[in-house]
Amino acid sequence: xxxxxxxxxxxxxxxxxxxxxxxxxxxxxxxxxxxxxxxxxxxxxxxxxxxxxxxxxxxxxxxxxxxxxxxxxxxxxxxxxxxxxxxxxxxxxxxxxxxxxxxxxxxxxxxxxxxxxx
Length: 118
Description:
The protein is mainly α. It is built from 5 helices and no strands.
């Protein structure tokens, strides 16, 4: 039954984002920032954990999940290092994901030979 929750929650999030893109003048970059910040805010107020437990993979839609990972990293680093944790927590928590995206993006650019648009 959990896979059904993941299916409809992830689909609902994607549908809401699509509606937001079509019905507003917001550019995709701003919507992406809104999702990352939303994930961080939901994590900060304690809603994201139960939401992810209910929805499973559907709640870890990349941008919401990334915002929550940043929040957790900052929270843990602040508990360990004080004020300086604000600056290093997000980088520490998300380094693996960001590194993988950069490496695979570079490999894809070598394989597919992208061309610059004029």
